Amino acid sequence: MTISVILLTQKDCAFCDQARDILTRLQGEYGLAVKTLEIDSEDGTRLASEGGIMFAPGLFVEGEPFSYGRLSERKLRKHFQGLTRILA
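Now predict its structure.
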């Protein structure tokens, strides 16, 4: 099972770097397929607008908006654990 994740980032963003580190750590654990987009790119702007993402980093899990701003690893782990039970 693979969980699809899209991370919206911007340059010189410490919270974006932190989100990347968290996703890298969790990638092997939960089988994540991570795609990164710049929030100010055409696709990034459209996705942020559609998902109500106000600023980077923005995170979508399985196509649904999950969070924006500083990413909580604890909240994300809990969400992934719930998804793995549902998708298993």
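The chain has a mean pLDDT of 94.
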